[in-house]
Structure formats: C-alpha cells, structure tokens
Design a protein that fits this description.
- This protein is an alpha+beta fold and 691 residues long.
- It is built from 20 helices and 23 strands.
- The radius of gyration is 48 Å and the shape is elongated.
Length: 691
C-alpha cells in the first residue's frame, strides 16, 4: 500500500510539472518517434538477472579498509579484551568482503556454472568462520592480538627463573682464603652494601677457568657509615657490652639521666656532648630510643608494630621453647627481657649500637648472609647459649632484598652449631620463624618442605606502606605447628575448619587442593596443573604449567605503567573515534544522498516524459470521442475494467469503434489505485489505424 501511495503522489507531482514543461512532441524532431519502453536483451536470462551490481559493495569495503587505518596503530598502545574484539571484527569483515567481492566478480554462475558458484559462496563463509574461530581462540587461550604486537616489538625473554642480581654462593672450606672487607666476607661483592659502591666499593671476580677467587688489591680505607640524624657511631672503640645497664646501677636515681647519641652512652647530670634527658624505662627498649638506620642500600631498620609483636610473642609461648634466638628482630628480645621470662635470650644483629644495651652473653654483631661474627669471641658465646637451651626457636627478620640461598645456608650453619653443642644421646628441637615478603618467602618453602606460610600480615611501625595490614605483603614462614598462631583476637581473620588454621576473611578454601589458597586476591583452580593460580594467569600448553615463580607471559604490567597507558589509550581512542567517523560515516552518508538524488531525478524525468505522452493521448481521445470532461477522459484512457484485450485495458475508444455507443464507464471506486505506467491505452493505436 505504501508503494502504491508513493507512485500516486509521484504521478500527481508529475502532472503539475508537465504544465510548465515542454511537450515531447515539441522537443523531438518531426522524423523522430519517441520510444515508450525498452527492455534488455538479457531480460529473459535468469542467470544474468541474479547478478546484481556490486559496486556499492566494493565502496563499503574500501571505506571499511580506510577505517581500519587508525585501529592498527591504536593496537600498539591499547591492550585488552575490548581492543582484541574490535580488531578481530575488523579483520574478519575486511577479509570476508574481500574474498566475497572476488567470488562475485569472477565466480558468476554463467561463467563457472551454478554448482561451482554455490560452492564458492559456501567456501567464503566457511573460510570466514574458520578465521573468526581462530582469532577468538587466539584471544581467549593465548596472548591476544594486541599483546602480540607488544611481544613482537619487545621479544619475550627466556622463562627460566631469573637469577636475582646475578649473585651466587661459592662453596668454601675452612682452608680457603676468602676475601674480606670491613663489612665481613664477600660473595662477589660486599655482603651488606652489595648495590651501593658509595658505601663500599669492594668487589672481586672469580676466574671461570680455574674456578678460583681472584685476590683483590689492598682495600682502601673503609668509607664512612651513613650519617644518622643527631647520632654518630665512633670507630675503633671497645665493644663495651652492657655498659649502659652497668652505669644505671651506679648512677643514683635522683640524678638527671642524660643520653648522648654521639657516644651512645648515658651520663649523670652533664656531659661534653649535646645530650638529652631520658627516663630509665626507655633505656630498657633500645629500639624506641635509637634512631633507626635508614640506608636502603644495606642497613634499613624496621621494627614490628605492637600487634605483630604480640602475635610473635604468643607463638613463642605456645611453642614451649626455652631458648629464643633473634636475628635482626631486636624488639622481640627486649620485650621478652622486660617480661622477665624464663627463656634464654640471644640477639644477632648488624647494628653494633645494641652492644651497649645487652651483655656479651645476649648479643653479637652478626652478618646473616655470610654467617660472620665481627667479634671472634661471640661465636663461642652463642654455642654456650645453645648448651643451656634444649628447645630453641629462631626468629629471623632479614632485609627485604636479602638473598634466600645464602640466608638459608647461614641458618643451616647455626643449626649445626646447635646440634654440635648438644651432649650425646640428648634430645632437642630447633624451630624457625622467618619474616619475609610473599614473593621471596616461597623460596624458603622450596628449600625446606617443613616450612609453611601463615596468613598473618606482618606490619611495621616505621614503614610507610607495610604499617597497614591491608597493604602488607610480609608473612610468617615457619615450621612450627599451626596451633601456635592464634589469631582469634586479631581483626580480619577467621578459623578454617578444614585447614585447622587461621586465614584471612577473604581467603577461600579449595576442596581440590584441600587448602586455603587465595593469598592475594581471587584464585581459580587449574585442573591441568592441579593447583590454584591467579585469575589473570593463563595455562600454557607448551610448558604445561603456570609460571608462578617466573615472569609470566600473561601477567599485566605494573600499575604505574598501566596508569600512563590508560591515559594514552583514552586520548588515542577519542582521536580514533573521530577519525573513524569522518572516514567511514560521512562518505557513506554522502554516497547515499547522491544515490537518492539520482533516483529522484531519474524518476521525475521519467514521469515528465510519461506525462507529455499522456497529454498527447488525451488530446487524441478528445478528438476521437468528442468528450470534453477531463474526468471522463482520464477514465477513457486509464481506468481499469474486468475485460482485457491483448494484455491491455479496454477503453471507450474500443467501444466506439465497435459501434457500441452505450455508456459502459462505471463510477470510479473510492481510492482506486492507478498504475499509470502499466496502462498504455489502445486509443492511440485505434486512431493511427483509422488514419
């Protein structure tokens, strides 16, 4: 119905335009005859009729190809599933339209046959489906299209476990001559300031051929230690173990007690250096009096918070040990000493200032990575401590950047000293608590299967990040039973009945692994690897494992780089969207407008010509029939009846020529649909035959 109304409206507009347009008979020369209709020579050829014009198809394909231009450079900067999907759709459509255009041009039915043409069309869709499936599989189970661009620009390194700092532990014997610097024996470099040559420039090399350590040149004078605010440690001074507690016994309580940070000592009433008054109680906790060392290159000191200290002390009580050895955890020792417990106590620390607060039977300056005692007599004092302790618990708080291999070897040597100090046929136990970040502590579990990791988040008072439990990645690695760590009074933890230990509230139990595996966020269980991994990890079919301890191929970049990339991606996305709109949408709209304009012009010209011919027919009908009514003339020419002659409608001209003068024109029905181009009256033919 809509099409019929459009034709009727067009017809009425053409009639109005014909009144002011020149007649066809006045335009054409006298010897020319207007051709009313024309048909193609291939009109009856069905195969030819099925072949449509695909010039528009090629235009759209070219516009789409031009629109892909900004997508390709954007893929180098924008990485993610959304960009992978956009690139997949663009490539699939581009390839599909290209192959389809070739088949439509060279695979026509009347050229290669109907069967081959159908097979060609089907093969195009099959190839497109395979391409789409392959790209989706690559995006889902592999790195994805956008990450492939990055990996192409930045080749993947070998996925072998990296050697941190390229350091290794050289096996030595007692007879080997090991090079020394002022900070202790070395493994390729200074054991304390291995990464800061400004503090200690000592380094030595190993002869790869002879497997011997080259003897270094005489060491230059030791560099100055890092300055501490209002505090300087003098050199070449006696150890003076426990000198401060000894003086406190001699100084009367009514005198003003002064503490000198330069001398690291206490004085009564006055002293030559600048001092500050202190209370006797604060001298019992050196970690709250001394300024922490802040050299990140080798001597950074961080002390446990009260909550973490309480968890460690509770574990010591539950372990039922009689000897506590702390390496780098002075706050634990001083707290136990204040509590006056029955435990035997000993502190091994690199900070020499603690020697003035502890006797020689409880302190030794020690370098944990190379198992070095700076005071030769201290090792003997440690052995005596082991002799008086049947069950020993060692609490180790190493630097965050410490190497695990030399640390574990030092702990093994300490354990051998403990076992060597035991009398024959005596029983004893040796347990450990090592405080390490998650990414470092996993090496401890690999070296010793008896260790396990507690979910408790260790916090420090003077650390900017690790002072909050939600941001701390430091955990307790121990071989003590899980029942020793009671976190019922600590907020954010729950008891897992399956694991029989306390875990964080967000840690979910995996019934396949039979453990709570959600250490840092949500984890999924991989049936192939038979363990839980992070959600972002993808299974590698070539390696048949997740690179949990390696640099993962699918692991996202650091948050800082990701933030910069998101900003750049947002700007590029806006530019890409604007450019795509200009390249794709505007040409399509312009092309569509041109097509509509061309069709309207063609239709108007056709209607004008038809109108001219119609007026000529009406004039001849008026001359033959003598009818003056315009309405009757329209019915005589174009009104349809139920009688057909040679495929055309019978008119009054036929009735008049046959001698039938009766009125046979019925009243026109309401809303009669007229198809004027389909009704060519026979009146002109009748008039021409009479002439």
């Amino acid at each position: 119905m809509a099409g019929s109304l459009r034709h009727l409206a067009t017809y009425q507009k053409a009639l109005l335009a014909a009144r002011s347009s020149p007649r066809l008979s006045t335009v054409l020369p006298a010897n020319f005859t207007a051709i009313r209709t024309s048909t193609s020579i291939n009109k009856d050829n069905e195969a030819f009729a099925k072949v449509h014009d695909h010039s528009t198809h090629f235009k759209i394909e070219r516009y789409w190809a031009a629109g892909m231009l900004p997508i390709l450079p954007a893929s180098y900067f924008i990485h993610g599933p959304v960009m992978d999907a956009v690139l997949t759709v663009a490539i699939t459509l581009h390839v599909h339209w290209g192959i389809q255009g070739v088949m439509a041009d060279y695979g026509r039915p009347y050229v290669i046959g109907d069967a081959a043409a159908k097979a060609g069309k089907i093969s195009v869709y099959i190839l497109t489906g395979l391409l789409l499936a392959g790209l989706l599989h690559f995006n889902t189970n592999d790195v994805g299209l956008t990450r492939a661009f990055e990996l192409k620009e930045k080749p993947i390194e070998e996925s072998e476990p990296r050697q941190r700092g390229l350091f290794t532990v050289v096996p030595t014997t007692k007879n080997d001559e090991i090079p020394h610097c002022s900070h202790g024996p070395d493994f390729f470099a200074c054991a304390v300031y291995r990464s800061d040559e400004a503090k200690c420039n000592f380094h030595t090399e190993v002869d790869e051929n002879n497997k011997k350590i080259e003897k270094p040149e005489p060491e230059e004078p030791a560099p100055k230690k890092p300055r501490i605010v209002r505090e300087i440690v003098k050199k070449d001074v006696p150890w003076d173990y426990g000198c401060i507690p000894k003086k406190l016994k001699k100084i009367p309580k009514e005198d003003t007690l002064l503490y000198c940070r330069v001398c690291n000592d206490v004085f009564a009433n006055k002293h030559a250096c600048i001092c500050e008054p202190v209370k006797r109680s604060i001298l019992r906790t050196p970690t709250r009096l001394l300024q922490p060392l802040d050299s990140q290159a080798g001597e950074a000191q961080y002390f446990f918070s009260d909550e973490s200290l309480g968890v460690v002390l509770s574990a010591i009580d539950e372990a039922k040990v009689d000897g506590v050895l702390c390496i780098g955890a002075p706050r634990v020792i001083e707290t136990l000493k204040i509590a006056k417990t029955e435990h035997q106590l000993f502190l091994l620390d690199y900070d020499r200032r603690h020697a003035h607060f502890f006797p020689s039977t409880q302190f030794a300056q020690y370098s944990m990575l190379v198992d070095h005692f700076f005071d030769p007599k201290s090792e003997e004092k440690l052995v005596n401590f082991f002799k008086n302790s049947g069950k020993v618990l060692i609490v180790v708080d190493p630097p965050f950047g410490a190497f695990i291999d030399p640390l574990m070897k030092s702990l093994e040597k300490i354990k051998h000293r403990f076992l060597g100090s035991r009398p024959p046929n005596s029983t004893g136990s040796f347990h450990s608590i090592i405080i390490l970040p998650i990414y470092v502590g996993k090496h401890v579990i690999r070296n010793d299967k008896s260790f396990w990791m507690s979910d408790y988040r260790v916090t420090y008072d003077n650390h900017k990040v690790f002072s909050k439990p939600s941001k701390s990645i430091v955990r307790l690695f121990t071989d003590l039973p899980a029942k020793c760590f009671d976190l019922s009074d600590v907020e954010g933890y729950r008891f897992c009945d399956m694991c029989e230990t306390y875990v964080t509230e967000k840690n979910q139990h995996c019934f396949k692994c039979m453990a709570c595996t959600s250490l840092a966020g949500q984890y999924n269980h991989c049936d192939r690897c038979k363990r839980c991994v992070k959600v972002s990890y993808k299974h590698c079919r070539q390696c048949f494992e997740h690179f949990l301890s390696r640099l993962l191929l699918m692991e996202e970049k650091e948050d800082e780089i990701a933030g910069l990339r998101q900003t750049a991606c947002f700007a590029i996305g806006l530019a890409t969207l604007a450019l795509s709109t200009i390249i794709i949408i505007l040409p399509l709209l312009f092309n569509q407008a041109q097509d509509v304009q061309s069709k309207l012009e063609h239709e108007l010209q056709f209607c004008t010509v038809q109108t001219h011919d119609l007026w000529d027919e009406l004039a001849k009908v008026e001359e033959v029939t003598g009818q003056k009514s315009r309405l009757k003339r329209q019915y005589a020419v174009g009104y349809p009846t139920d009688n057909y002659v040679s495929g055309g409608h019978r008119s009054l001209v036929n009735n008049f020529n046959s001698g039938n003068t009766a009125e046979q024109v019925p009243s026109p029905p309401v809303s009669q649909n007229y198809e004027t181009e389909a009704y060519i009256s026979a009146a002109t033919a009748s008039v021409s035959s009479k002439n």
